[in-house]
Amino acid sequence: MQEQDKVQEQDQNLEKQDAAEVAAEDVTQAEAVSTPDYAKVIAELEAKISEMQDAFMRAKAEGENIRRRAQDDISKAHKFAIEGFAEVMVPVKDSLEMALKIDTPSIESLKEGVEITLKQLNSAFEKNRLSEVNPAQGDKLDPMKHQAISMVPAEQEANTVVTVLQKGYTIADRLLRPALVTVAQGK
User: What is the pTM of this model?
Assistant: First the structure.
């Protein structure tokens, strides 16, 4: 039996040696596979860095161009913002100047000229979204659109418009000037 034990022990030792040799070969192969060519890897990384730097510089230049164009657009918008309004106001001025050139105007011709000029002015306001704030008698006071000048005794609900002293105006829903109104006092 001792011989059998010795044979088994030798077999086990051979198996361990074989396993160790296989493991050593695996490590050697793994090292061969995992050991890259450093010069090649460095060259690839440098190429990627160069591409990324180029892309960054292009993006930076494009951003700068967009910023510059936006500044130019804003500058032009400020400079020519009133151009459309001025174009529709010029005929109104022309009409007023023509009315003053008449040597002996009649009341009827003056009235007709003023009516035409007012129509031109209203058209100019309409085209540029300039609208009147003209509350009716009895409308509720709106402090966002009306300015109460005084409170007067009236036969209507308190804090309602009695009279409009001066119309107000808005430009595209933004208040330009509030309507000046008198308001009913509480009873």
Answer: 0.57
